[in-house]
UniProtKB/TrEMBL annotation:
It comes from the Bacteria. Keywords: Membrane, Transmembrane, Transmembrane helix. It comes from Streptococcus himalayensis. This is Phosphatase PAP2 family protein. CDD domains: PAP2_like_2. Residues 87-199 form the Phosphatidic acid phosphatase type 2/haloperoxidase domain. The keyword Membrane applies. Pfam families: PAP2. The chain crosses the membrane at residues 7-25, 61-80, 87-104, 124-144, 156-178, 184-202.
Amino acid sequence: MKHKQTWLTRGSFALLLFVILGYVVKFYPEQLTNIDQPIQAGIRGDLPRLWTNFFATMTQLANIPVIISWVLIFVLFFLWKNWQSEALYVAGNLALSGLLVSLLKQVYQRPRPSISHLVQETGFSFPSGHSLAATLVFGSLIVVMYQRIQKKPLRYLMQGMCLLLIGIVLVSRVYLGVHYPSDVLGGALLGFGVLCLEYPFYDEWRFKRRFTRKQS
């Protein structure tokens, strides 16, 4: 595949940044206070009801029951279209996000912010599971759209919507008070890094399956 090394370099760099951030979170969390608090204050503002209702609703896109439900719909659609590689790619990344979050939260064990939480959350804070799941799953859909939607205006529209949804989920976690900005950044870096490392191998596997007519 062309540019394979480029994708691997991007992914490695993103994961390196995640590791550095995780190191600071684990051993020097006070160093992030001067960064996290101003961003929290700027995003939350005076908590207007309109924004509170909006972000409380949008953050549910990455809640476990919700994200499993709509990923299942996409997977069934892909299987109906005989796109087995795409179905496994999206479903696999959802499962991977769950495994990574379960493992890494136990490694870092960062308490959640002490500010008011506008939604109910339990467990540790770093990395943000919603941010990781949104980045991995919506990112996977962006890749599938790039490969499958031929009309550029429609493709750009759909990909732009996915990027917007990622951004909204990330901001919602900070606004709702259940994550520090660095938690959200960590989840996004990890998700982006995994996507970049996966992409050349997924694309090569998909090409082989299509070449041998094992799928459409």
